[in-house]
Amino acid sequence: MRLMNWGITLPPELTSRIASESLDRRQLTVKDAGKPEYAIVFSGRELLLNEQGAMYWSCGTQGVPSAFSQETIVQHYVLGSDSQAVFHAVEIAGAAPDLQPEDLRSAMGLAAESDAEPLAMAASLLGWGRKTQYCAACGGTLVAISEERYKACSQCQAHYYPPVSPCVIVLVSKGNEILLARSPRHKPGMFTLLAGFVEPGETVEQALAREVYEESGVRVKNIRYIASQPWPFAHNLMLGYHAEFESGDLVLDRDELEAGDWFHIDQLPELPPRFTLSRQLIETYIAKIKPVS
């Protein structure tokens, strides 16, 4: 696997963001004056790395990466600031052949924990901006308000904000066994946890129980929230839970899943990459019930 330097490369003393420090997403204030500015740059759906193989491009004025001209900028949003710098999300038109494009899924697998938040935020905002061009009420052209991160209709002034779609993902356990499945969309041989979107009028817990039953025929109990993860494909928020088997025979929904079964924790199939919430929920459960050797 190609090694990459995901940290900030200029100035030299800024080698990484602080993992525990979230971006301040309010309007930039006087406290941000004089801070170095960096942009995460996309060309379409691909992330562009700079000459050093890093995710952050040094910016000149108004959040424009120094390596590009204002005329190449298709989209621009201010992501926010932390104690070290100000961060932007930028999409350019086309890309020079000598630049390094990186698939977003691969990038998320390689990025440091401290860079996951700005990368997911940038991908979600630019993906939304790419698809949201016209007003649903009157058909007018939408104009991006980058500092506030919304779009306004040029005719009726309606406002459009980036959506967040809540999804539930659940580790269902039965003692030393966990329920894993795969859909035709997954990598061949890879199994993961059951997941699905929360529907209007549902609580997350109701969505979890419904999705598990619809896809596997299994009823669950003792539902407990574990963790969450932004998932910018395109604008999901994954809410991770653990639930215990209550009843039911395993009957897969063949319209959604091509395979699935109960797997012993010592005999697991290929699992999703380590950066995914699915993998983290699995490893957390194994660490909880397996005795320390």
Automatic annotation (TrEMBL):
Signal peptide: none annotated. InterPro entries: NAD-cap_RNA_hydrolase_NudC, NADH_PPase-like_N, NudC-like_C, Nudix_hydrolase, NUDIX_hydrolase-like_dom_sf, NUDIX_hydrolase_CS, NUDIX_hydrolase_dom. Residues 162-285 form the Nudix hydrolase domain. Its cofactor is Zn(2+); Mg(2+). Keywords: Hydrolase, Magnesium, Metal-binding, NAD. Pfam families: NUDIX, NUDIX-like. It catalyses: a 5'-end NAD(+)-phospho-ribonucleoside in mRNA + H2O = a 5'-end phospho-adenosine-phospho-ribonucleoside in mRNA + beta-nicotinamide D-ribonucleotide + 2 H(+). This is NAD(+) diphosphatase. It comes from Kistimonas scapharcae. The gene is nudC.
